[in-house]
Amino acid sequence: MSKFERKFGRYAIKNLSLMLIMCYACGYLITIIFPEFLQYLTLDPYKILHGQIWRLVTWIIYPPSNSNIFFVLITLYFYYSLGTTLERTWGDYRYNLYIFSGMLFTILGSFVLMGYSYLFLKQGSYFVVSDYIFTTESYFQAIANCFSTYYVNMSIFLAFAATFPDVQVLLMFIVPVKVKWMGIVYAALLLYEFLTYPVYYKIVIAASLLNFIVFYITSRNRVHLSPKQMRRRQEFKRETRRSAGITKHKCAICGRTEEDSPDLEFRFCSKCEGNYEYCQNHLFTHEHVKR
Questions:
Q1: What b-and-e string marks burial along 28-54, b requiring 16 or more CB atoms within 10 Å of the CB?
Q2: Which of 180, 275, 263 shows the shortest CA–CA distance to 224?
């Protein structure tokens, strides 16, 4: 547990995935009832600087897609399942940090794109993009639709694929496929779009998925947890909470707890058979327990 987590972890929002899905559901309802109203909710940096600051938050309501209701329900359930699984595995604080950092990078990316547009695309009172001429308002309204929750959901999916690579899902409800292969395909498509699309779209993709890039770089050397290991860790935590007077963390080698040294970090070893937890000094040096 980091110092920031100990200090700010109590402020983490629980069931954040459910709240995101509720926002998407509101967006879908607005699409059906009053679709024109969505244009007042998009992430438009030009209008934000002209006083419409609510757009810094309301763009989360903008739905990832506007397909038929059956596909919408399947999509909402799918991303809810992925999000809640990550939330249980990482904990509320780290999942909050991942989601909100993705949103923050997306907002910053929209302003970076605005600066780029004024420097390189503005010609007089118009913006010229690939021989198309836009007024200032129409141009920023167009790029606002690019910064949507689509990439927020994509970052959740990629994080799930990186954390649980061997989990199987039913593609088209029929074909079983490991989620890591789907993640590789999606990553390849995103890379292709990044390399072939115009510069302004590169900024959209890079900003929206920067949180996943940071996550992957910082956690690529860690052992991934399988659903079975995740369940075992949750059961062990519940058992320790029931036991009064017992510390939450204890190293299986040296016996130190968080009370002995509050700065110590503790982790479970996925290669040991059983609920064995080690401090940071013995996590990578102990011999794995085999039954």
A1: bebbeeeeeebeebbbbbbbbeeeeee
A2: 180
**34 touches 86 (CB < 8 A):** no
For 152-166, write each residue's pLDDT tens digit. Answer: 888 999 999 888 888
Residues 6+ apart with CB under 8 A from 40: 52, 55, 58
Pairwise CA distance, residues 194 & 209, whole Å = 11
Query: In terms of residues, how long is the chain?
Result: 291
Cα–Cα–Cα angle for 213, 105, 142, rounded to 5 degrees: 115
- 214-273 pLDDT per residue, tens: 888 876 555 455 555 555 665 666 666 555 455 678 888 888 887 777 777 888 888 888
Q: Where are the alpha helices (DSSP H) in the chain?
A: 3-8, 16-33, 45-48, 55-58, 69-90, 92-116, 136-144, 150-163, 179-196, 199-208, 210-219, 227-242
Q: Which residues contact 165 (CB under 8 A, 6 or more apart)?
A: 178, 179, 180, 183, 224
In this structure, what token pair is assigned to residue 183?
A: 């993640």
- Spatial distance between the Cα atoms of 89 and 85, rounded to a whole number of angstroms: 6
Q: How far apart are CA 156 and CA 78, in angstroms?
A: 11
Helix (H) or strand (E) holding 124: none
Measured between alpha carbons, how far is 250 from 240 in angstroms, rounded to an integer? 11
Question: Cβ contacts of residue 215 below 8 Å, gap of 6+?
Answer: 98, 159, 162
CB atoms within 10 A of CB 93: 19
C-beta separation of 108 from 101 below 8 A:
no
Residue with tokens 């910082």: 218
Beta-bridge mates of residue 178: 168
